[in-house]
Write a structure and sequence with these properties.
By secondary structure, the chain is α/β, with parallel strands linked by helices. Helix content is 40%, strand content 15%. The chain has nine helices and nine strands. It has a six-stranded parallel β-sheet, sandwiched between helices. Strand 5 (122-127) and strand 6 (130-131) form a beta hairpin. The longest helix has 17 residues, at 152-168. The two termini are 32 Å apart. The model is unreliable at 1-14, 27-48 and 272-279 (pLDDT under 50).
Amino acid sequence: MVNRLCGGQSGGGSSLNMSNAKHCFKNTENGEKYMTAERSEFANSGNTGNISIAIDGPAGAGKSTIAKEISKRLSITYVDTGAMYRAIGLKAMRMGIDPADVRRVVPMLDGTNVSIEYVDGVQHVLLDGEDVSGLIRTEEVSHYASVISTIPEVRKKLVELQRALARVRNVVMDGRDICSYVLPDATHKFFVTAEPEVRAARRYTEYAAAGKLNGRSFDDILCEIKRRDERDSTREAAPLRPADDAVVIDTSEMNVESAVAAVLAVSYTHLTLPTNSRV
């Protein structure tokens, strides 16, 4: 039976379905106050293979920030799956292809190669041999990536690469369907979320600091967040929702350190970690 320890679904008009949530961390402070109901239930008993930590969640919840910090602390590879979809979106945008036009997007995939390389510990996303790491973080590319990711053929192509990485490396991977589809047998699974208004405020602050508001108000960004939640959670291919066995972390009232501590509280005790790991 599913254990709900943190109330109902997000407020503010969010369409995310949290009914699968098994366990939830909320209002954690420095990792000292966390709920531990049946912690052993999340252990992968007898694990002798690669470590794989899967983190799902909606836009603006902080999952990428958390995943990167987990990667540093545990000395394992961070795989930014969203960047891979952004690369595909960037190519479609450059070619003038509507990201929803399946008849044009699918043929484009045949001549497309997306790969990830690490130079001095920094991830680089290569699109057909070109390093596009600095070109895929715009709002326009983000829109293309969100739309194009709903096409099953796109997801199939990139999932093959993501699974291949997890087979040969210890990884922490974040996205929107990592737990349920990409790495269903991941060592540990997490769903990181936050109230829509909180996520919109974070994005607004981020864009303002980077000079990328482009005239948008907080309400505009909140509407974008809600539209994306709706699109991601209702898509036919691997819709966004917590996996049955995922630990839900609500970061609405957490800072980064608290959220990272919540992940480590579940995973650190039970994983056979690399010798360089730290907490």
